[in-house]
Design brief:
Helix content is about 30%, strand content about 20%. It is α/β, with parallel strands linked by helices. Strand 2, helix 3 and strand 3 form a beta-alpha-beta unit.
């Protein structure tokens, strides 16, 4: 039986009351986070984990972790955010990054202006990491990395991709030196000479309203006439893939 303190810890992290913490669920995601040296603050596992298709050494690393607690499958079921569970969850302390850390690399900076869906946020972070972005800024108050759903969609990208909340996103973008490109549905379509050789900032707006930032140059992805606009995560993946040096 879990203590009241552990239950309170999980509840507070899930509700975003604890800065920089996230609950991660699922055998593969948890095993990858532990193997990567993520800062584990709590690990809970139940007998169902033993039936997951993980290598024996990964199972031993989870069940034998210094901060691991074994609980029943029924108790794990009550703790999970989804309808079923794989027998393990952890509370992780995510790396803390400042806005300037997101500009330290040679890749593009992704700036999210009000993305609200945690699945979109996580998917964009996954693409940003895959295509070599230097980091990700997001307007404080929107979706962020301290979400179980966002972490799952990111496939662990938050462990090493610099991600930072920004209070005044437009001012921060204006103050940094890179050229700025704003993805917008009603904008000129990209041409074959995009992107420029030097890294820039790619701004993406919210799912419903887009962005009202009056900065940079607006661009759009050429599409078949009459097509619906793309989901923001889809658009991010397409645009970021074009910025990657190894693109086709």
């Amino acid at each position: 039986m879990l203590s009241a303190a552990i239950r309170s810890q999980l509840r507070d992290v899930r509700r975003g009351r604890v800065t920089g913490r996230v609950v991660v669920e699922g055998a593969r995601l948890v095993a990858e986070a532990v193997a990567a040296g993520a800062a584990v603050e709590l690990l809970l596992w139940s007998p169902r984990l033993l039936g997951r298709p993980l290598p024996p050494e990964q199972l031993r690393r989870l069940t034998g972790h210094a901060l691991a607690h074994e609980i029943s499958d029924g108790e794990m079921e009550r703790l999970q955010s989804g309808p079923s569970h794989q027998g393990v969850l952890v509370v992780l302390a995510l790396p803390a990054f400042a806005p300037e850390d997101c500009l330290a690399g040679n890749g593009w900076l992704v700036a999210l202006d009000g993305v609200q869906d945690p699945l979109n946020f996580g998917a964009i972070a996954r693409s940003a990491r895959a295509f070599g972005a230097s980091g990700l800024w997001y307007r404080r108050g929107g979706a962020g990395p301290s979400s179980t759903r966002a972490y799952r969609a990111s496939a662990g990208a938050f462990l090493d991709l610099p991600v930072s909340a920004v209070d005044d996103l437009e001012a921060a973008i204006a103050a940094q030196p890179r050229p700025v490109w704003v993805a917008a549905a009603a904008a000129p379509g990209l041409t074959t000479d995009w992107p420029p050789e030097s890294p820039g900032v790619l701004v993406l707006g919210s799912e419903g309203q887009g962005t009202e930032l009056v900065i940079g140059r607006r661009i759009s992805i050429p599409m078949r006439p009459g097509s619906e606009s793309l989901n923001v995560a889809q658009a991010a993946a397409i645009l970021l893939s074009r910025t990657f040096p190894g693109r086709l």
